[in-house]
Amino acid sequence: MMYTEDYKKYTDDIVNWIENAAPEWNYYINFINGIGNTFGKHKTENLKQFISWEQEMKKRRNKDFLEIFPELKPWYKYCHDA
Fold it and tell me: Do residues 11 and 35 touch, judged by C-beta distance below 8 A?
């Protein structure tokens, strides 16, 4: 299942959260916006890169993506299973 553009609001929420709660992650804003801009057009490689990035952030910053954005769990699972 690939999400459509109507889910872009969730990546916008992530970007807003980074800007307000974790400005040290600003480097990833373009990456996250890229995800939002390509809903429905993802390649398996891109989905796996997201999971790799998320796991690294969990390790480095002790931030759990699914705790912060539980509404994106189906998309996260889709990426993880890619």
Answer: yes
